[in-house]
UniProtKB/TrEMBL annotation:
Keywords annotated in UniProt: Endoplasmic reticulum, Membrane, Transmembrane, Transmembrane helix
GO biological process, one term: vacuolar protein processing
Any single Gene Ontology cellular-component annotation: vacuole
Protein name as it appears in the record: Uncharacterized protein
Location of this chain's protein in the cell: Endoplasmic reticulum membrane
Chain intervals for the UniProt region annotation (Disordered): 42-79
Alphabetical list of InterPro entries matching this protein: SND2/TMEM208
Family statement: Belongs to the TMEM208 family.
Membrane topology: Multi-pass membrane protein
Species whose genome carries this gene: Lyophyllum shimeji (Hon-shimeji)
Transmembrane annotation, as ranges: 12-32
Database matches in Pfam families: TMEM208_SND2 (PF05620)
UniProt feature, compositional bias: Basic and acidic residues: 44-58
């Protein structure tokens, strides 16, 4: 049986190992680590620090309510 390793060279086998290692890394970061270690993603961490924003309509209604405009009815706060 001939030795086929010389056909590709060492660089091919290093490159051949990079692809599965990268796949394992991405699987660890996106699935395994958050599931077992309870680590959150960057997006979830950003949502915690993000202040609540109000739409233009909500802001306008709030200002009308503060002035006592009869078109605005005060509604109970939602839980």
């Amino acid at each position: 049986m001939p030795n086929w390793k010389w056909l590709f060279g060492d660089w091919f086998w290093w490159l051949y190992m990079v692809i599965p290692l990268y796949a394992v890394f991405k699987l660890w970061v996106s699935v395994i680590s958050p599931m077992f270690l309870g680590r959150s993603t960057k997006q979830a961490a950003d949502d915690i620090n993000k202040p609540e924003t109000t739409s233009k309509r909500q802001e306008k209604l709030r200002k009308r309510n503060e002035r006592g405009d009869p078109r605005v009815r005060a509604q109970p706060a939602r839980k």
